[in-house]
Amino acid sequence: MVGAISVAMLVIGCGSSDDYANDPRPPRPLNVSVSVHDDRVDVSPSQIGAGPVVLTVVNLSRRSQDVRLEAPAASSSACVDADTASGPINPRGTARLSVDLVEGDCLVTAADGGRPRPATLTVGRERPTAQADLLEP
After folding, report:
1. What is the rounded distance in angstroms from the CA atom of residue 37 to the CA atom of residue 41?
2. Ramachandran region of residue 68, left (φ > 0), alpha (ψ -120 to 50) or beta?
3. Non-local CB neighbours of 59 within 8 Å, separated by 6+ positions
4. What is the dihedral of CA 86, 90, 91, 96, to 10 degrees?
5. All domains of the chain in start order, with CATH
6. Each residue of 124-136: pLDDT tens digit?
Protein backbone atom coordinates (compact mmCIF):
# COMPACT_ATOMS: atom_id res chain seq x y z
CA MET A 1 0.00 0.00 0.00
CA VAL A 2 2.79 2.43 0.92
CA GLY A 3 4.61 1.50 -2.29
CA ALA A 4 1.53 2.21 -4.43
CA ILE A 5 1.03 5.60 -2.77
CA SER A 6 4.71 6.44 -3.26
CA VAL A 7 4.54 5.56 -6.97
CA ALA A 8 1.35 7.62 -7.37
CA MET A 9 2.93 10.61 -5.64
CA LEU A 10 6.04 10.27 -7.81
CA VAL A 11 3.95 10.26 -11.00
CA ILE A 12 1.85 13.22 -9.84
CA GLY A 13 4.90 15.17 -8.68
CA CYS A 14 6.71 14.87 -11.98
CA GLY A 15 5.54 17.43 -14.48
CA SER A 16 5.89 17.14 -18.19
CA SER A 17 9.27 17.65 -19.74
CA ASP A 18 7.99 20.47 -21.97
CA ASP A 19 9.33 23.91 -21.16
CA TYR A 20 6.79 26.52 -20.15
CA ALA A 21 6.85 29.42 -22.57
CA ASN A 22 6.50 32.56 -20.50
CA ASP A 23 5.50 34.79 -23.39
CA PRO A 24 5.06 38.45 -22.50
CA ARG A 25 1.54 39.82 -22.20
CA PRO A 26 0.18 42.06 -24.91
CA PRO A 27 0.10 45.80 -24.25
CA ARG A 28 -2.63 47.13 -21.99
CA PRO A 29 -5.77 48.04 -24.01
CA LEU A 30 -6.13 51.75 -24.74
CA ASN A 31 -9.43 53.59 -24.81
CA VAL A 32 -10.05 55.72 -27.89
CA SER A 33 -13.07 58.02 -28.17
CA VAL A 34 -14.87 58.46 -31.48
CA SER A 35 -17.65 61.01 -31.88
CA VAL A 36 -19.76 61.22 -35.01
CA HIS A 37 -21.31 64.58 -35.87
CA ASP A 38 -23.50 65.50 -38.83
CA ASP A 39 -20.52 66.96 -40.74
CA ARG A 40 -17.43 65.19 -39.32
CA VAL A 41 -15.95 62.33 -37.30
CA ASP A 42 -13.59 63.09 -34.40
CA VAL A 43 -11.05 60.67 -32.86
CA SER A 44 -9.20 61.23 -29.60
CA PRO A 45 -6.32 60.52 -29.33
CA SER A 46 -5.54 60.51 -33.05
CA GLN A 47 -2.04 59.01 -32.66
CA ILE A 48 -1.42 55.84 -30.64
CA GLY A 49 0.86 52.82 -30.57
CA ALA A 50 -0.09 49.43 -32.00
CA GLY A 51 -1.87 46.89 -29.81
CA PRO A 52 -5.34 46.23 -28.40
CA VAL A 53 -7.74 49.19 -28.44
CA VAL A 54 -11.31 49.73 -27.25
CA LEU A 55 -13.12 52.30 -29.39
CA THR A 56 -16.03 54.00 -27.63
CA VAL A 57 -18.22 55.49 -30.35
CA VAL A 58 -20.92 58.08 -29.67
CA ASN A 59 -23.31 59.11 -32.42
CA LEU A 60 -24.11 62.81 -32.00
CA SER A 61 -25.67 63.12 -35.45
CA ARG A 62 -29.34 63.07 -36.39
CA ARG A 63 -29.06 59.81 -38.38
CA SER A 64 -28.14 56.22 -37.66
CA GLN A 65 -24.42 55.69 -38.37
CA ASP A 66 -22.15 52.73 -39.12
CA VAL A 67 -18.58 53.53 -38.03
CA ARG A 68 -15.77 51.78 -39.91
CA LEU A 69 -11.98 51.55 -39.75
CA GLU A 70 -10.63 51.41 -43.31
CA ALA A 71 -7.33 51.73 -45.11
CA PRO A 72 -6.84 55.12 -46.79
CA ALA A 73 -7.26 54.95 -50.57
CA ALA A 74 -3.64 55.86 -51.41
CA SER A 75 -2.02 53.87 -48.59
CA SER A 76 -0.56 50.38 -48.70
CA SER A 77 -0.51 49.96 -44.91
CA ALA A 78 -3.67 50.01 -42.82
CA CYS A 79 -3.95 49.90 -39.04
CA VAL A 80 -6.34 46.92 -39.20
CA ASP A 81 -5.93 43.60 -40.98
CA ALA A 82 -9.51 43.69 -42.31
CA ASP A 83 -12.14 46.42 -42.47
CA THR A 84 -13.86 46.72 -39.10
CA ALA A 85 -17.41 48.03 -38.60
CA SER A 86 -19.53 48.87 -35.56
CA GLY A 87 -22.91 48.12 -37.07
CA PRO A 88 -25.73 50.68 -36.96
CA ILE A 89 -25.59 53.14 -34.06
CA ASN A 90 -28.81 55.06 -33.41
CA PRO A 91 -28.78 58.84 -32.97
CA ARG A 92 -27.51 59.75 -29.47
CA GLY A 93 -26.45 56.12 -29.06
CA THR A 94 -23.09 54.57 -28.21
CA ALA A 95 -21.16 51.46 -29.21
CA ARG A 96 -17.90 49.77 -28.19
CA LEU A 97 -15.51 48.13 -30.61
CA SER A 98 -12.50 46.06 -29.52
CA VAL A 99 -9.79 45.76 -32.16
CA ASP A 100 -6.12 44.85 -32.41
CA LEU A 101 -4.37 47.63 -34.31
CA VAL A 102 -1.14 47.27 -36.25
CA GLU A 103 1.26 49.96 -37.44
CA GLY A 104 -0.23 52.12 -40.20
CA ASP A 105 -2.96 54.67 -40.89
CA CYS A 106 -6.72 54.23 -40.82
CA LEU A 107 -9.68 56.31 -41.81
CA VAL A 108 -12.48 56.35 -39.25
CA THR A 109 -15.59 56.82 -41.36
CA ALA A 110 -19.30 56.98 -40.67
CA ALA A 111 -21.47 55.56 -43.42
CA ASP A 112 -24.85 57.08 -44.08
CA GLY A 113 -26.43 59.11 -46.87
CA GLY A 114 -24.65 62.35 -45.84
CA ARG A 115 -21.23 60.74 -45.27
CA PRO A 116 -19.56 62.98 -42.63
CA ARG A 117 -15.90 63.92 -43.19
CA PRO A 118 -13.72 61.01 -41.90
CA ALA A 119 -11.00 61.27 -39.25
CA THR A 120 -7.49 59.82 -39.52
CA LEU A 121 -6.08 57.49 -36.87
CA THR A 122 -2.29 57.08 -36.99
CA VAL A 123 -0.89 53.95 -35.35
CA GLY A 124 2.81 53.82 -34.55
CA ARG A 125 5.04 50.96 -33.42
CA GLU A 126 3.77 48.49 -30.84
CA ARG A 127 3.31 49.72 -27.27
CA PRO A 128 5.33 48.07 -24.46
CA THR A 129 4.11 44.84 -22.91
CA ALA A 130 1.94 44.85 -19.78
CA GLN A 131 4.05 42.03 -18.32
CA ALA A 132 5.20 43.97 -15.26
CA ASP A 133 1.79 45.53 -14.49
CA LEU A 134 0.19 44.13 -11.37
CA LEU A 135 -3.45 43.04 -11.14
CA GLU A 136 -3.86 42.70 -14.89
CA PRO A 137 -5.65 39.70 -16.36
Report:
1. 6
2. beta
3. 36, 65, 89, 90, 91, 92, 93, 94, 95, 110
4. -40
5. 30-124 (2.60.40.420)
6. 888 877 666 655 5
**Cα R_g (the chain), whole angstroms:** 23
- Bridge partners of residue 124, in order along the sequence: 49
Contact in structure between 54 and 30 (CB atoms under 8 Å): yes
- DSSP per residue over 54-95, as a string? EEEEEE-SSS-EEEEEE--TT-S-BSSSS-EEEEEE-TT-EE
Residue 35 contacts residue 84 (beta carbons within 8 Å): no
pLDDT digits (tens, 9 = 90+) for 63-90: 999 998 888 877 667 777 777 888 899 9
pTM for the full model? 0.75
45 cis-preceded (ω within 30 degrees of 0):
yes
Compute the residue count for the chain. Answer: 137
